[in-house]
Amino acid sequence: MADDDQRDQIKTSEPGWLARLATAYKSHSPVLVVDDGNVGIDPSSDTLLEMGRRARFGVRDWIAVVVALGVAATGAYLVVMAILDPEPFSKIGLALGAGTVMVLGGGFSAIHVLTNVKPPSVRLSPRGIEISWD
Fold this sequence. Notes:
Layout: H1 2-6, E1 8-11, H2 17-27, E2 31-34, H3 48-54, H4 59-84, H5 89-115, E3 121-125, E4 128-132
Parallel strand pairs: 1-2
Antiparallel strand pairs: 2-4, 3-4
Helix pairs in contact: 4-5
């Protein structure tokens, strides 16, 4: 029971629940998802993107996802422009470094989490859907 006390609870009726779930997926934190919004999600077979579709997210929610993905596009642009720039490499090293960090850190992880990551342990309990990476 001590593990349940440490488990973060996410309710589908609350705004921003998918973003919180995505953060838990990315950090592999155990969570308890309570589908009190009757979204009908199934974390054992659905990706976060599929859950968002099922929840019928609005334009603002999808814009937040696109902004996260835009980090990768901006980083890729910085890398390409730094390589094509005729200035000496010493002056473009920062642009290359920042672009690479943006591509590898921000956008690709958002894409990966939204489309590919499914938790290895999903259990239905009386309290809700327990998700863990044990």
